[in-house]
């Protein structure tokens, strides 16, 4: 049961890691911005934005996947435009899996960062300003270091969520081995085939190992940061 | 360096409308909570944008609403010492202290060592703010503000969060700062004892308006402002110099008003001090009292008399070139026939002067600001 993975299984694991990495890395700036907008700024439509961000958390993943297909698919308005102008295509491509994972993980990331932003005392930022720091400097030297644990927590949570994303991904980019077959899709496939169970279990163990590693990593990092900040 | 402040700002149910000039030295903004002190100081720092106003620090325009000019806080060069210190928790004490210096584009030079020395914070440099006591935090906050090379220091009740012992620990540092770091200081407080010890000028704020302002010695000796300061807190200041510590624990002082004996003062001989004499601790007599336990008997002349609305009266006394306030009953005032020009003796028990009411007087040209000075 624990013999080496087949090339197909390896490809699924590698693809999942790649999809999750890019989904997390590219959504991080947007997550940071959205968290600040929700925590600090006051603007008309703030509640609408809040609702939109949380939508993937509440909608059935199949619905999110279908909406993505409608928008970013070959025939979708955005998808067609991106394809024409930038040559970027999402449909039935690993980038599509990354987009679906990013969208599904976004609410979790924003929530974690938003909590951290709300915990920062604006009075500390005022103090930094009176000491001569312009706004970008205040952000870089005070705000950012203080919310770093929240950002890391959000990123790791998003990564874990992206690793496990299934419904929206399979709806949007299908389940093509080597192209869009992620770890959960592969497990699903093996479970559909008679006698595929041992292979499925091997992948399940890998999924568990990756998730636990992410969890411990996040614990360790946030504790190290807390010690540096002096809160521990 | 002078600071001109003219501000008008309106909140829900409160308006601030002030116009005054702060001369060099420590200008205390004194008033009850809710009188607009913090609003005022935040407007000077640029943390609050008032509806209208003009703030000029030594010819440098910080705010001029008529011309649409409002410098952001980081370009005002004001060092702000907060009540809650507001040290950055993710930085060490040393990094906190150097934070403003870095933006002022200065290296950690001799000035750094001098301030560290002045505030006794060298042993704390490698610690985190979370591991400091309240008094230590206050000192680091002070150092951080001064080291940012400000043109002006703002202090928002820097002692209010501390207990009495910590206050007594910090006050001498503030006095040293005032005397050794030649910066104009705007000092917000609602504690008269602090104001009396530190301020060269007092601006009395009430409900968003300036009720009175002037040199500290003059303002505190004015019976007209005493009710606004709180009658129990009313008291004038005498300046004096420590002459000797006597063997029975008393300290002998000599000042323009005459000799004074007080309980031991923790200052070397020759040191100039200010003694706050509470009006309610001064007794008046027409003849020099003979056998009496009070150690200090100063010949004085009644300068002004102000009858209170209740049974009390405030008597302003000329003692040598200085002024003293005495709070007596109207009945006594009548019985003694007190009126301007009347010669009396002011009697002061040595033990009635609390330690916190004796502070290092400002040195240098600002030291002597007697009545009319």
Automatic annotation (TrEMBL), chain A:
UniProt key word Nuclease: no
Organism: Tabrizicola oligotrophica
InterPro entries assigned: MetI-like, MetI-like_sf, ModB_ABC
Purpose: Part of the binding-protein-dependent transport system for molybdenum; probably responsible for the translocation of the substrate across the membrane.
Cross-referenced Gene3D superfamilies: MetI-like
Protein family membership: Belongs to the binding-protein-dependent transport system permease family. CysTW subfamily.
Protein's cellular compartments: Cell inner membrane; Cell membrane
Gene Ontology cellular component list: plasma membrane
Membrane association type: Multi-pass membrane protein
Transmembrane segments: 20-39, 51-73, 85-106, 137-160, 200-218
Gene Ontology MF terms in the entry: molybdate ion transmembrane transporter activity
Name of the protein in its database record: Molybdenum transport system permease
Keywords noted in UniProt: Cell inner membrane, Cell membrane, Membrane, Molybdenum, Transmembrane, Transmembrane helix, Transport
NCBIfam families per the UniProt record, alphabetical: modB_ABC (TIGR02141), PRK09421.1 (NF006939)
Domain ABC transmembrane type-1 span(s) in chain numbering: 13-216
TrEMBL record, chain B:
Translocase in keyword set: yes
Domain ABC transporter span(s) in chain numbering: 5-232
Entry keyword set: ATP-binding, Cell inner membrane, Cell membrane, Membrane, Molybdenum, Nucleotide-binding, Translocase, Transport
Domain Mop: 291-357
GO molecular function per UniProt: ABC-type transporter activity; ATP binding; ATP hydrolysis activity; molybdate ion transmembrane transporter activity
Any single Pfam family the record assigns to this protein: TOBE
Entry's Gene Ontology cellular component terms: membrane
Protein name: Molybdenum ABC transporter ATP-binding protein
Species in which this protein is naturally found: Tabrizicola oligotrophica
């Amino acid at each position: 049961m624990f013999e080496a993975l087949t090339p197909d299984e390896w490809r699924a694991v590698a693809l999942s890691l790649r999809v999750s990495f890019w989904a997390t890395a590219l959504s991080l700036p947007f997550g940071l911005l959205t968290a600040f907008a929700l925590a600090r700024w006051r603007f008309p439509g703030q509640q609408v934005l809040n609702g939109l961000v949380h939508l993937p958390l509440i909608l059935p993943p199949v619905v999110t996947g279908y909406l993505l297909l409608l928008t970013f698919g070959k025939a979708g308005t955005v998808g067609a435009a991106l394809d024409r102008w930038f040559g970027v295509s999402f449909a039935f491509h690993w980038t599509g899996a990354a987009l679906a994972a990013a969208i599904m993980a976004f609410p979790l990331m924003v929530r974690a960062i938003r909590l951290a932003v709300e915990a920062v005392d604006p009075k500390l930022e005022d103090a930094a300003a009176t000491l001569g720091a312009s706004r970008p400097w205040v952000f870089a030297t005070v705000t950012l270091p203080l919310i770093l644990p929240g950002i890391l927590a959000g990123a790791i949570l998003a990564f874990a969520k992206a690793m496990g994303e299934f419904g929206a991904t399979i709806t949007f980019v299908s389940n093509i081995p080597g192209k869009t077959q992620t770890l959960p899709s592969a497990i699903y496939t093996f479970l559909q085939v008679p006698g595929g169970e041992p292979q499925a279990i091997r992948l399940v163990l890998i999924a568990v190992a990756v998730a636990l590693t992410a969890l411990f990593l996040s614990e360790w990092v946030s504790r190290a940061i807390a010690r540096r900040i002096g809160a521990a | 360096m002078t600071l001109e402040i003219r501000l008008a700002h309106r909140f829900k149910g409160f308006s601030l409308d002030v116009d005054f000039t702060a001369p060099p030295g420590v200008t205390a903004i004194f008033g009850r909570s809710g009188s607009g002190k913090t609003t005022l100081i935040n407007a000077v720092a640029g943390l609050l944008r008032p509806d209208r106003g003009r703030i000029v620090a030594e010819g440098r325009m910080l705010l001029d609403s008529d011309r649409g000019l409002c410098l952001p806080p980081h370009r005002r060069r004001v060092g702000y010492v907060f009540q809650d210190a507001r040290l950055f928790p993710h930085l060490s004490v040393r990094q906190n202290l150097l934070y403003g210096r870095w933006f002022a584009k200065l290296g950690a030079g001799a000035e750094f060592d001098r301030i560290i020395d002045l505030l006794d914070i060298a042993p704390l440099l490698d610690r985190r703010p979370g591991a400091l006591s309240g008094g230590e935090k206050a000192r680091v906050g002070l150092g951080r503000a001064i080291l940012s090379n400000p043109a002006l220091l703002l202090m928002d009740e820097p002692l209010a969060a501390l207990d009495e012992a910590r206050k007594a620990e910090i006050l001498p540092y503030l006095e040293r700062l005032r005397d050794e770091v030649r910066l104009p200081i705007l000092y917000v407080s609602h504690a008269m004892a602090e104001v009396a010890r530190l301020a060269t000028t007092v601006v009395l704020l009430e409900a968003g308006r300036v009720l009175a302002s002037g040199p500290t010695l003059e303002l505190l000796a004015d019976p007209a402002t005493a009710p606004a300061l709180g009658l129990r807190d009313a008291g004038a200041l005498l300046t004096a110099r420590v002459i000797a510590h006597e063997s029975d624990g008393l300290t002998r002082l000599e000042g323009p008003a005459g000799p004074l004996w007080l309980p031991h003062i923790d200052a070397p001989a020759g040191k100039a001090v200010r003694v706050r004499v509470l009006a309610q601790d001064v007794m008046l007599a027409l003849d020099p009292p003979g056998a009496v336990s009070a150690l200090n008997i100063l010949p004085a002349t009644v300068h002004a008399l102000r009858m209170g609305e209740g049974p009390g009266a405030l008597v302003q006394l000329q003692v040598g070139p200085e002024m003293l306030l005495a709070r007596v009953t109207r009945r006594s005032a009548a019985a003694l026939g007190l009126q301007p020009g009347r010669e009396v003796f002011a009697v002061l028990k040595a033990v009635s002067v609390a330690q916190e009411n004796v502070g290092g007087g400002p040195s240098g040209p600002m030291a002597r600001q007697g009545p009319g000075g």
